[in-house]
Amino acid sequence: MLLTTPSPIDLRSDTVTLPTAAMRQAMANAEVGDDVYGEDPTVRKLEWRAAEIFGKQAALFVPSGVMGNTIGIKLHTQHGEEFVCEAHAHVLDWELSMSAWFSGVFARPVAATDGVLRWSDVAPAVRTASPHNARTSLICVENTHNMAGGIVTPVAVAEELYAEAHARGLKVHLDGARIFHAATYLGVSVATLARHADTVMFCLSKGLGSPVGSLLVGTAEDISRAHSYRKRLGGGMRQAGVLAATGLISLEEMPRRLQEDHHHAQAFAAAIADIPGLAITHEVQTNIVIFDVTGTGQQPEAISARLRAMGVLLNGIDNARMRAVTHYDVSLDQCRRAADCLRHVLQPGASPLEPLLGSTRLG
Fold first, then answer.
1. Homologous superfamily of the 256-346 domain (CATH)
2. Interatomic CA distance for residues 30 and 248, integer angstroms
3. CA-CA distance, 215 to 103, in Å (whole number)?
């Protein structure tokens, strides 16, 4: 008899999703060409469709969100200038200081309530060129905001920021890695959320399920310039249609199911909310739950190790907080099981748990 090891319940990130059966079939059947020569028909179709969905003139397929954000910042800045972002923005904390390394610009962070960047937060940080300081040329907005627990920026708040920025000659780049989650939560289109942003980066490889890839959308002029920056960063791919084929499925099919992930995150949060010493740090709006374990007297690293032994993958983000991210390959039952395991780890006297039998959904 062949024994198989159950797959772990993986809540580390939505980047761990596996391509669906439809995506694997699309990869096998993709029509391809050399994309550096502009000859890959599947990439061109993906870029055209992304621009259409976002209400922009053009789009560029890139290997990663970091590359998309790096190019977006580069398009709107000059060496030695500044851009403003939220104090815990992904472009500031998790992208290897690429804005400084590649674009030569300084990030000026501002703290925002719940991670929602408002014009009232930004205005005091905007600087005009003088003999003593560099000019602010760009604002970066993150929606949803990863380190603020997947919080969503309301439409009116974003549009006030865009209007005030543009009135002062500032550009706005939107880090929309999970913008489809934001649109789902608000019940609006991504085009509504993106309509006043100069450029938008969004990921195919998180909640939308593709194995690789992000897109940068904007004006035809900006995207034309972006091609050279992609090449400089090593992002000139050849027969990339095998990847773009999954992106088309991500765009057309996967947004319809994101509400399921939001529901699973809320269920997980509800199941752990009464654990003594644990505190959920932000309202759970989308697919991210961040919680502080300081009051339990245990360290995130130790908690992660004990959970792993129980078949649950869940990481700390610093020495006090942990993050759970729901996605296509984790069911509601598995989220509840993960919550039970966390309770067992944090409350040694909790009832024993049955061995982990469930496996992640594949397909």
1. Aspartate Aminotransferase, domain 1 (3.90.1150.10)
2. 11
3. 19
303 contact partners, CB below 8 Å, separation of at least 6: 293, 314, 316, 322, 342, 345, 346
Instruction: Report pLDDT for 347.
Output: 85
Predicted confidence at residue 350, as pLDDT, reads: 58
20 neighbors 322 (Cβ within 8 angstroms): no
pLDDT of residue 2: 45
Mean pLDDT by 10 residues, the chain (363 residues): 67 96 97 94 98 98 98 97 97 96 97 94 95 96 97 98 98 98 98 98 97 98 98 95 98 97 98 96 97 96 96 96 98 97 85 48 36
Q: Domains of the chain: which residue ranges?
A: 21-254, 256-346
Q: In this predicted structure, what is the pLDDT of residue 363?
A: 32
Q: Which residues are CB-neighbours of 34 under 8 A, at least 6 positions away?
A: 40, 238, 239
- β-pair partners for 313: 10
Handedness of CA 216, 220, 224, 225 (dihedral sign): negative
Give how far the C-alpha of residue 161 lies from the chain's centroid of Cα atoms, to the nearest Å.
21
The reply to whether 21-254 and 256-346 are identical in fold is no
Query: Cα separation of 270 and 116, whole Å?
Result: 23
H helices of the chain, in order, are: 21-29, 41-54, 65-75, 90-93, 98-103, 119-122, 155-167, 179-186, 190-194, 220-232, 241-252, 258-272, 300-309, 332-346
Residue written as token pair 């604002």: 139
Could you give the CA distance from residue 360 to residue 8 in angstroms, rounded to a whole number?
A: 7
Residues 330, 264: Cα–Cα separation, whole Å: 9
Domain 21-254, what fold? Aspartate Aminotransferase; domain 2 (3.40.640)
Residue 144's CB is within 10 A of a number of other CB atoms, namely 27
How many other β-carbons are positioned within 10 Å of the β-carbon of residue 328? 24
What secondary structure letter does DSSP report for 21?
H
